[in-house]
Amino acid sequence: MSLFTTMNVASSGLGASSTSLSVIGDNIANINTTGYKANRTEFSDQLPQNIYGSGGPSQLGTGVGLTRISTLFGQGSITSTDNALDMAIGGDGFFVVSDSVSDFYTRAGEFFLDDEGFVVSAEGLNLQGYNATNGVLGGTLDDLQIDLDAIAPAETSTITMSANLSAEADFATTPVAALVLNTGTGDTLEDAANQADFATSVTVYDSLGVAHEVTVVFERTGTNDWDWYALVDAGEAEITALGSTGTAGSAYQISGGTMTFDTSGNLTAFTQTDTTGFNFEGASADPAYVFDFGIDTAGNPLDGQVRMNNGESAVTAVTQDGYGTGILLNLSVNTSGIVTGVYSNGEELIMGQVALARFQSNQGLDRVGGNLYRETIDSNSPAIGAPDTGGRGTIAGNALERSNVDLEEQFVEMITSQRSYQANARVVNTANDTLQELVNLV
């Protein structure tokens, strides 16, 4: 083996150490890059040279060569942020982003809304997902867009109540039945509430989204029988018989009926009769509300639960399904990637769902800069779908995935590569000195 071969071997070592230092430097430079995956150099010995000695044939190494630079797709740590559209993937998968021509894939979840409501990356690429219409997710992958408009009001249709009516209430008289509640100019809401055995109220919304208070009063009329009345302020109701609104503060009955309980206090019979010939100012005529106290008028079970037991009368829950106009206040993203809008009226509406891509071989992906990858023949085509399905990871909202670079490990590798470079350089110097001595001898 000649001294020139020795220098070639040492030179290959210098190249390997230099490449290793470059990769280490790249890892350290990107330690604060969101979603960055560390790289490592992989080397192999070069084809050895066959030599023959007195003891038989042998092989002599001819140096080292770069096999490949591989990417380590291990999980990076997840940190919380204040941006609702910052997202981190826990597990396998990549966000899909597009420039309208090509799709790219990334672990960097720094997203925000543009002026048209599209969810875009820091590079201005559109995040891909499934858009929703009226809270229902579609099945077509597209640029994910958030509807920034206010949501229209919804008129109340159902009032659901859970309450306990006292089994100790007096039923000798029925003072509420003696009140004038159907003219819009009679007794007041306060009179009805004071004379009833129990009263509560709930806010409802008309077809314009305007809020109104409905007072519901209960009056015991027999051992297991009760009457109920749903009343509004007559000053808010346009009453056909009057040709105008009623007297402010006066009670106007919009619905009512009877209830019967069994000996265990369970509601067994329920009736409801609605009033016609009125509307809230400017809203649709004759609004009709389904009062859900536990069963319907046919005796079928519903969600409410009004019972009669001992103790004081009290309401435990009352809800209704209407709402006023709502302005989008905030967004949230759950583990399945569903983006939900939170509105000023308390409503929450599904706005869309983030999609994730999963590859048969992450190592086959091609880095194109900007925290982006693209598919290759080696990676195969992506399987795109909802997070937390098909082996795809989950989504953490208000969070980002940090680089998975281990700084301490990189320092150790850097020192090792530095020492390797120095040693190979020493071999080159030694071979050069020896070659110079040989030249001098000649």
Description:
The chain has 442 residues and is of the alpha+beta class. The chain folds into three domains: 3-74 and 404-441, no CATH class; 82-151 and 329-401, no CATH class; 158-320, Tick-borne Encephalitis virus Glycoprotein, domain 1, CATH 2.60.98.20. Helices cover 16% and strands 40% of the residues. It is built from three helices and 34 strands. The strands form ten sheets. Strands 7, 8, 11, 12, 26, 27, 28, 29 and 32 form a nine-stranded antiparallel sheet that branches. Strands 14, 15, 16, 19, 20 and 21 form a six-stranded antiparallel sheet that branches. Strands 13, 23, 24 and 25 form a four-stranded mixed sheet that branches. Strand 27 (338-343) and strand 28 (348-354) form a beta hairpin. Helix 1 (3-29) runs antiparallel to helix 3 (407-441). The longest helix has 35 residues, at 407-441. The radius of gyration is 38 Å and the shape is rod-shaped. 31% of the residues are buried. The model has no long low-confidence stretch (mean pLDDT 91).
